[in-house]
Every structure is written in structure tokens, then in C-alpha cells.
């Protein structure tokens, strides 16, 4: 049996917040989950209502009820809530269950100890999965010699963007780069827009130009395969406007600040994992 033979899946979401809602809606649209056999649990009625409206998946208050119904369980809660969720569903877990955690910093060792199961995945997606443009890293642990579970995770998270199978010791770096990275990019877009406003552009126009510029530049990197430095050099003509702007960014240690932000976030992800 290949992983393709497993779809559509019965997927249970333990937590029904924004990330779970985005994943559920995308997977339902892609035909990767069976909405009639899938479930989501959340303690907040308003959160359950939003999830059900967006995905067509029935919601309940009990995590244990979701575990009893579904084969694949997505742990979509804050890291400090993982232990409580595990305690609730552990008595219902069977060999058929595959647990996929998107809780930042919670290691596979911790998940194995908490859930008592050998079929595990740890995934670090990011918030652009809300618009189908996530960048995810994932690691798996399972006893299956055919790596069906690993392929399954790649298929699921590849449906909401790009997903990379990595050794687990690199997932904190993924957290620092793509997990936290959207916030850095939003700050850059805001700053670009502020620069446009300072130069006389109306705020809505400046913000749209800034966001579209970042989107276009990202597409150039992804679709041409060229090094970002080469693309930068192609814009920066001798004695021109772009090289003058680059000089200002270099004067302010722009690149060093970005590198430091990724390192700081990755370090913090490791600290969160140790607290678990």
C-alpha cells in the first residue's frame, strides 16, 4: 500500500484555532481528508463554530471523542497545553493512530513520552498556510519500513505550500526562519510603506506597492532559481538609485539584524522545547 491509497483520511484536530482551520479547509478542498469522518475539538464554542463554518467538519468539546473517531490526530495547541491534551486522549490511542504535532518546540521525544505512541510527526508550519503559501519543515518517527507516514506528512503540508523533510535537530532553525519569519517580513513591508509615505505616496498605495514588491521578489527567487545576490545585482545599476538604497541598508547592518533575528528565534524555540 502506498500513502496515496490512504486518502481521503479521517483527521482529528486537537485544537481548532486559525492554523487548524486553515489546514482543515485546505485539506478538505484538496480531497485529502473526509469531512464526514473527521472531527475537531476545542474548549471554546466560538472557535468551534468558526472552524466548522470554514471546513465543514463537525466540532466537539472533547479531545477524547476526536481520538476515538479519527486515525490521524493533529495536535494544534500551544506548547504548554500539549501535556493536558495528551493526558486526555492517551487512554484512547491505538496502533492505528498517527499523531502530528504543530506545537512549536515540542520534541519527538517529548511527544513519545506524552502520547505513548511510536507513530509521530513534528511539523513547523507558518501562518501563510492561511493563504496556501506555507513554508514547513517536518520530522517523523515511526516503525513503518515503507515510510508511509513520512510521505503522508509531506503530502498534507505540501498541499498548503512547500514542506521539507528534515532531521529533527534542524526544526528549531526552521522555527527561527520560516516559523517566525513572516513577522520579520511584515515589519519590512511596513517599513517600505513608511518610506513611500515619507516620500509622498498615499498610505494605501505605498502599502500595496510594498507588499506586491515583496511578493514579486519572492516569486523571482523561487521561480528563477537564481541566487538572491544575483537578482539584487541585476537591479542595482552602477551609480543608480538602488545601490544608494542598498548602501543605507548595509550602513544599518540590515543583513546582520536579519541573521540575528533568526538565530534568536531558533534559540528560543529550543528553550521552549526544554521546558516541555
TrEMBL record:
GO terms for molecular function: pyrroline-5-carboxylate reductase activity. Its main location: cytoplasm. It is found in: Cytoplasm. PROSITE patterns: P5CR (PS00521). GO terms for biological process: L-proline biosynthetic process. It catalyses: L-proline + NAD(+) = (S)-1-pyrroline-5-carboxylate + NADH + 2 H(+); L-proline + NADP(+) = (S)-1-pyrroline-5-carboxylate + NADPH + 2 H(+). Residues 168-272 form the Pyrroline-5-carboxylate reductase dimerisation domain. Pathway: Amino-acid biosynthesis; L-proline biosynthesis; L-proline from L-glutamate 5-semialdehyde: step 1/1. Its EC number is 1.5.1.2. SUPFAM superfamilies: 6-phosphogluconate dehydrogenase C-terminal domain-like, NAD(P)-binding Rossmann-fold domains. Keywords: Amino-acid biosynthesis, Cytoplasm, NADP, Oxidoreductase, Proline biosynthesis. NADP(+) binds at residues 14-19, 76-79. Residues 11-105 form the Pyrroline-5-carboxylate reductase catalytic N-terminal domain. NADPH binds at residue 63. InterPro entries: 6-PGluconate_DH-like_C_sf, NAD(P)-bd_dom_sf, P5C_Rdtase_cat_N, P5CR-like_CS, P5CR_dimer, Pyrroline-COOH_reductase. One of its GO terms (cellular component) is cytoplasm. NCBIfam families: proC (TIGR00112). Belongs to the pyrroline-5-carboxylate reductase family. Catalyzes the reduction of 1-pyrroline-5-carboxylate (PCA) to L-proline. This is Pyrroline-5-carboxylate reductase. The lineage of its organism: Bacteria, Pseudomonadati, Planctomycetota, Planctomycetia, Gemmatales. The gene is proC.
